[in-house]
Amino acid sequence: VDLPALLPPALTPQISTSLRHYYHTTYKDSFFSPSGPPTAWFAVFLWFEALYHAPLSLWAVRALWRGEATHPMIPVQLLVFAVLTAVTTIVCIAEYLSWEHLTVADKVNLGYLYVPYLALYNTKDIASRKGEKLRFLHIKFASISGNERLSEVRVQKRESDLSCD
Question: Distance between CA atoms of 77 and 26, rounded to whole angstroms?
Answer without folding.
Answer: 34
